Structures are given as structure tokens and as C-alpha cells.
Amino acid sequence: MRHLPLFRDLKGSRVVVSGGGEIARSKLRTLLRTEARVIVFAADPHPEVEADATAGRLVLVRRPLGEGDAICAALVYGANGDTAEDARVAGIGRRAGALVNIVDDLEGSDFISPAIVDRDPVVVAIGTEGAAPVLARRIKADIEAMLPQALGPLARLAAGFRHAVEALPFGRPRRDFWTRYFDREGRMALDTGGEGAVRDRLQSLLDEHIAGRVPAGRVSLVGAGPGDPELLTLRARNRLHDADVIVHDQLVPRPILDLGRREALFIAVGKRAGGPSWRQADIDALLVDHARSGALVVRLKSGDAGVFGRLDEELDALDAAGVAWEIVPGVTSAMAAAAEIGRSMTRRDRNSAVTLATAQDAAGMAEHDWRALARPGAVTAIYMGVRAARFVQGRLMLHGADPTTPVSAVENAGRPERRTVATTLADLPQALVAEGIGGPAILFLGLAPRRQAAPAALPAAMEA
């Protein structure tokens, strides 16, 4: 290890930056998050640097760095992008006793600036000794996904409560308290009520630990999205990681379930088309029983929990039992299916509204305002429509729909095994059978697939 990782206290320290262009701006974005006194020397500064100076965030000196300008500086940055000028700056800095960093020049620098994940006061630094900046950026992205933005506020609030926690015996009792706070309770309180709710929860959590009471359970009703783990929200990932019990639909794929703790209890409920099913009353009772035992329960639903997921029925049961709950929305399957065919569900010159409909309900085939759905330009996303395709076709054509209306069927949207079928209303049932579409699938009435362009490469961040 060539470079020793250190965290330098810059509160009130003088930090000098030579250069006011794009290279300097990239360093200033980080430096201005510290409590340092930042002085920039630049004859022709970028407008954003001038704006920061006007706002009092830094001191701007409109000339090149000169001898004596780095006296009492803790750090000096050479960010001119000119080898000779940056070498001159390095000499001035070292003669003044400062540590020097020349941007993108490992050998000419006394220290390097790592990639940073900032969850102040929690800071994670990633360095590769300058060997692989792209790898550092990749690691940073992974860590940012792991550490929620809430971590910083939770750490600050915890610091102010440490004295109160001394009421618990030293050792495991205190560790158990902080584990519950950081792993689960603090984050959930922040999500639902802000910092005031966190302060209240800290006190009630401490009271529970002092009294030795069993903590109250709760239920998080979480949208699992269309099936791709990368389309889960960060909050959904956090709830899966925290859960003691995960009650999930049959359609939730294994890669998403694998995000839960191995120690969690997994219970598959719901049904597949034509197969056995759980009674809703039994699912309700399951959620209530586990929550009353003190467990954090995640009710994991495909797509968005509030779209054809019997959400209200489960909330009614939880309210009746006095069980606390929250809703974590997800990417609905219709949104994912529209993305797969490269289409917007609304368009100014085509339709100003979109309908989400189910082809089947508790009574069998679902009835709708078919005349409205059959209008030219109307767009409808139909859930559970594969087995009801002939029924949907008949109802729409009976109410005047054009037989040439484009229809896109998207099976397993957002998953590696996804498939898309383009057809028309007249040929819909036959096309689904010919292509072997069995579901889960979304039928888009009024939308034909668009050829999709390859995703653009993401820019790599520099580390130096």
C-alpha cells in the first residue's frame, strides 16, 4: 500500500487552488463541502467559480499563484491543466510547507484525492493508487447504492443521543440498541416523519430497552417492481434487508427474494393463473399474526403494491388489528412494459390520458367502459389479459374499435426472459397463441413497439 488513507481535519484550514477552469471546478465541488477556507488563484475564472466567490463560499484572487501565497496553507492544488504551470505551483506549495496535489499527476503529487461517498458525517473514500479510476467509480456507485442518504442524518442524531444511552449497561445491551436504531427503526422513522420522528423514536426505543419490552411489529407493503432487481427502489431494498418475515407473491422472482436476509422467514402466497391460491383472509391473518409477535413484516407484491394488488383489503385488516404499516411504492409493470417497447403511454397529439385495466376480477371477466377504450388514439394497459384476449377483442370490436388498432404484448417486462409481440386487435388471440405468450404479460392497446437505440455509455469519473 503506497498511500496511507487519512482523514484530514480541514475546519478553519487554508486550502489553496491554482486554476479556475473545468479542472479546478471538479476539485472545488468536493472542497466546498468541507469546513476549509478555500482560496482560488485564477486570472480568468469560470463563471461558476465567480458565482461561488460572490456567494462567499470561497475567496477568488484574479491572478496566478505567486511566491508566498501558499504560506500557512494545509493543502495546495495545481489544477491549471498546464504541466509547466502546475510544476511551478507545486514548488511554491512545498516551499510553504503545504501538501501538494497536481490533478491527474500521481508522481507529482504528495497525496491523491479518492472517490468519495458522502453521507456526512459518514464518509467513505475509495482509492486505487491511481491505477484504475474507472474501477474506483464503479465501487463508488455500488457503495452509494448500499448506503442510503438517510445515513448522515441518522448518524448526526445518534451523536446527540449517546449520553442518554449510557442508561443501558455497557456492552451487548448498548450494541443491541444501536443495531436496532441503525438497521431498522431510525431509518423507518425518518422515512415516515422526518428528524422529529427520529428523536421521538430514539427515546421510545431506549424506554423499550430499559424496560425489556418486546418491540412492536409493523408491516411494510412493498412494490417489487416488474422483476428486475435494479428497478427496485432503495427503500424497497432496505426494507427487504431489514425484514424478519417476507410474505411474497408467486410472481416475485428469486433474484429479488435473495435481497432479503437469509435468516428471514419467506412465505409464498398469491396464485398463478389456473393454479391454487391463498384466501385473502388467510394472508391478512398471516400479516397480523407475525406483526403482533414483534416481527418486521414485508408484504412483497409484484409491480406496484397499489395497482391490482388488493392493497386496501390488507390495510383494512391491519388497521382493524391496530398494526402499524407503511406503503413503499414500486415501478408498476405497465411502466416497465412501455419502456420495453420504447413508447410513452401518453402523447400530446395522440392521448392525454392512459387507462390501467384488468381483464379479470373476482367475478370473472372484468367489464369496463369499452366504448371509451375503443376510441381512436386511446391507450390502455391491460393486466391479466392473455387468457382473456378473445373476450377483450370481442368487447372492443363490438363497441367500434378499429380492427387494425396496434397491440403490443410484453411478457416478463423488466426481466432477462422478456418477450414482445407486435400485432393488431383483429389478430390478437391468434398472435398470443402462435408466440406462446402465457404471462405474466401486459397488453398495450393503441401502442406499437418502437425500435430502441442502444444505451449510451456512461462517462467515467477521474480519480487523482
From TrEMBL:
One of its GO terms (molecular function) is precorrin-2 dehydrogenase activity. Pfam families: CysG_dimeriser, NAD_binding_7, TP_methylase. It comes from the Bacteria. Pathway: Porphyrin-containing compound metabolism; siroheme biosynthesis; sirohydrochlorin from precorrin-2: step 1/1; Porphyrin-containing compound metabolism; siroheme biosynthesis; precorrin-2 from uroporphyrinogen III: step 1/1. Belongs to the precorrin methyltransferase family. Residues 219-428 form the Tetrapyrrole methylase domain. The active site is at residues 249, 271. GO terms for biological process: cobalamin biosynthetic process; methylation; siroheme biosynthetic process. InterPro entries: 4pyrrol_Mease, 4pyrrol_Methylase_sf, 4pyrrole_Mease_sub1, 4pyrrole_Mease_sub2, CobA/CysG_C, NAD(P)-bd_dom_sf, Siro_Cobalamin_biosynth, Sirohaem_synt_dimer_dom_sf. This is Uroporphyrinogen-III C-methyltransferase. It catalyses: precorrin-2 + NAD(+) = sirohydrochlorin + NADH + 2 H(+). Keywords: Cobalamin biosynthesis, Lyase, Methyltransferase, Multifunctional enzyme, NAD, Oxidoreductase, Porphyrin biosynthesis, S-adenosyl-L-methionine, Transferase. Residues 150-206 form the Sirohaem synthase dimerisation domain.
